[in-house]
Amino acid sequence: xxxxLFSLLDPKTIIxxxxxxxxxxxxxxxxGTFLGFILPGDTLLITAGLLASKxxxxxxxxxxxxxxxxxxxxxxxxxxxxxxxPRLFVRDDSFLFKKRYLEQAKKFYDKHGKKTIIIGRFLxxxxxxxxxxxxxTQMNYGVFLTYNIIGGIFWVFSLSLLGFFLGExxxxxxxxxxxxIIGVFVVSFIPPIFQIIxxxxx
Length: 202
Prior knowledge:
The structure is a single chain. The chain is mostly helical. It has helices spanning 2-9, 11-30, 35-38, 41-53, 59-90, 99-119, 126-136, 141-169, 177-201. The longest helix has 32 residues, at 59-90. It is elongated and about 55 Å long.
């Protein structure tokens, strides 16, 4: 059963089954949802680039529609957080929720919000929650949209083209897609883990 589940979540299986539409749908849904914990967009984009080099999908359509999906997904996450945010600021503290955390997050976004929107694209977990938190902390939407567009395009182009370049230059690399996926998945979680360890030490 576990092997069947991994097969269904395999980027190569998704792309070969649903094509470009499947990639676009996942890139859109990933922002502001928990889907990124199941299939991080990083691995999907690199795999899509690899398969584009073999003619499975069109590279230019991947870059164009992938960027649009990533930007729209983050925008939906932002407005979800924006709508939910005021309720978070007025609710009482509980075991899972501390109002001071949201206040600290607002200060963080006021100071570092712009680069968080861009850099967060490349960090699993953070990528999903960054737009929601930006909306919840009332980050200016014009500023958010500008860096959302920059980050979305840079994220999709860099990883897709990396996959395409690897597929074009390394013969038979498509046979090693699974190790590549695992490697990218692990690397994307390293920065958040270091930050958590650093925070706990403080």
